[in-house]
Structures are given as C-alpha cells and as structure tokens.
Amino acid sequence: MTGVRVLVCDDEQLLREALVRLVGAAGDLTVVGAVGDGASAVEAAAEHEPDVVLMDIRLPGMDGIEATRRIVARGGPSRVLILTTYDLDSYVYAGLQAGASGFLLKDAPGERIRDGIRIVASGQSVLAPEATTRMIQALQPMLPTDEDRALLEAAGRLTEREREVCELIAQGLSNDEIAAHLVISRYTVKVHVSSILTKLDLPDRIHVLISWSRLRGLRPSRPSQRPTAPD
C-alpha cells in the first residue's frame, strides 16, 4: 500500500509532534494535518479527507468519541484509529459503537502503530491485544439474547473453513497472519472474510471478533485443524 494519508489528533503538543514524526518516518504514510481537539479533527477530516484519523479520546471540548462519530457519520473516506493512554473497556466499546475501525494504546511499539494505520487504511480493523483478551472474557458469561440466537442460526451457514477464519479473527489475527496460519493466500482470506460478513450480516472484522467471541460462550467451540495443503 502506498500514499496513506493520515490526520493526527492529540491534545498534548509534544505527543502530537512525536506522532507526526513517527508516522512521517514511514515512506508509505503521509501526515496531512495535526490538531489538538475533537472539533478541529472533524473540520480537518472534512477538509483533507485523510485515509486514517489517529484519534485521542480525552480531548478539550468535543471528545474523541463524539469526533469519531461525526467523522464516520459524514460518510467520507476517512476511517478512525483510536490511539489512547487509557486502556479502559468503556472506551473500547464506546469507540467501536461510534464507528472506529481500531483501538491501540499509545505505548504500543511505533511499528505496531504504523502497521495499525496500514491495516485500517486497507479496510480492515485492529484492536490492541490487551483489549481483545478482556473483551472476549467479558462477553462469554453473558446470557444469550434474541440477537445471539439469530447469530447462532446464521453461523450454521458458515463452512468449516469460514469457522476457522472466524476463530482466528476472534484471536486478533490480521489477514496476513490468518493466511500464514492456514497456509492459504491473502486473497483467499479476503474472500472468506467477505463471505463471513455477508452470511453473518456484520459490517466489519471487529464485529466478527465480538460476535464470534459471544458465540464461544453459547456453544462448545469446534476444534480447528491446521491444513496440510493450501486451498
């Protein structure tokens, strides 16, 4: 991927400048703007139409959750990757509900942040491993709802390979990691993911992660086997 346009939003000037340097150091990423509050992020996203907005949560005035909601609701090309110091479940859920495509912690290694930007720009989703683990643990004990029962029925239409892909998505693996694990091409993984989203009527990979994690608590998991040959 080349030419990913990035808008940085963080209220701390030193950190904002550090993120600009971090992103700008990658040849395939370009910073198109840097702002310090949510309202400015919404305005800058409308003006520059970046591929990815790196969004802090705690901002003066309009917070990052509301800014994310407005940027996504606008319907432009911009996707939001939340980058925050605050590793709190409430922020993860609120950010995802607002339409964010990912959630990473600010103390993540620089290359993980740059990779997260690339993943989100490509139309995929990314979650900090810490948040993924706790989300799964929190979802499993819940009692089934009507929505869960409908999801169970829809999951019955998945192929065995699609269930394997769902399980790996629920573990937080990217398309490239799933391809390596299952010994199939990245294109084949994308085809499987597209089919899964259609069959489960879900908008993106993060919702697959959430839904499949819920399903784990509703029925016994089906063991997957590592294939001996590519699809």
Automatic annotation (TrEMBL):
Residues 151-216 form the HTH luxR-type domain. The modification 4-aspartylphosphate is found at D56. One of its GO terms (molecular function) is DNA binding. Residues 5-121 form the Response regulatory domain. The keyword Transcription applies. SMART domains: HTH_LUXR (SM00421), REC (SM00448). InterPro entries: CheY-like_superfamily, NreC/VraR/RcsB-like_REC, Sig_transdc_resp-reg_receiver, Tscrpt_reg_LuxR_C, WalR-like. GO terms for biological process: phosphorelay signal transduction system; regulation of DNA-templated transcription. Coiled coil: none annotated. Signal peptide: none annotated. Pfam families: GerE (PF00196), Response_reg (PF00072). Keywords: DNA-binding, Phosphoprotein, Transcription, Transcription regulation. PANTHER family: TRANSCRIPTIONAL REGULATORY PROTEIN NARL-RELATED (PTHR43214:SF24), TWO-COMPONENT RESPONSE REGULATOR (PTHR43214). This is Response regulator transcription factor. It comes from Nonomuraea cypriaca.
